[in-house]
Amino acid sequence: MSCCYRESFFDNDSNIQYFYFTTKILYFYFMYRKHFFYLLFLSLTGFLVFGFEKFNVLNFDLSIFPIIVSVFTLLTLFQNNKRKRQIQWVKVLLFANTIYILKYIIFDSSNEILGYLYLAIITLLLALSLKSLMKDQQLVDSVNRLR
After folding, report:
1. Which has more confidence, 124 or 6?
2. Rounded to an integer, what distance in angstroms lies between the CA atom of residue 94 and that of residue 98?
3. pTM score, two decimals?
4. Does any domain span residue 77?
5. Most buried among 31, 71, 107, 147, by the most CB within 10 A?
């Protein structure tokens, strides 16, 4: 090596691959909004809970409610360019979740703490995704006002 040679970050092949995968991950993260990740996590959680309950791993005592929430959440995710419709679907899911929570508290005799925990997680994720969707809609409306 000469005294003027300075090793660059991109001289090593593994550093190039690291940089490539890091930019891919960052691109994926910034390509989607927060409500996408909330709804995706909600959908995956619903499928997991339904699978656990179906194969008797854990008892949530929720019947088919997690799979219904997951399917409607996936339908909401696929309408990514129709923000107003997404807001309506999330509001409908919040209403259905509230009705199911009341039904679960009043009519179900078994007090499964896992069921209450799952319903609380659904409510939290739906509220966060609704807040994020409303924020995006307000931003788009403010830009349209300036035109």
Report:
1. 124
2. 6
3. 0.74
4. yes
5. 71
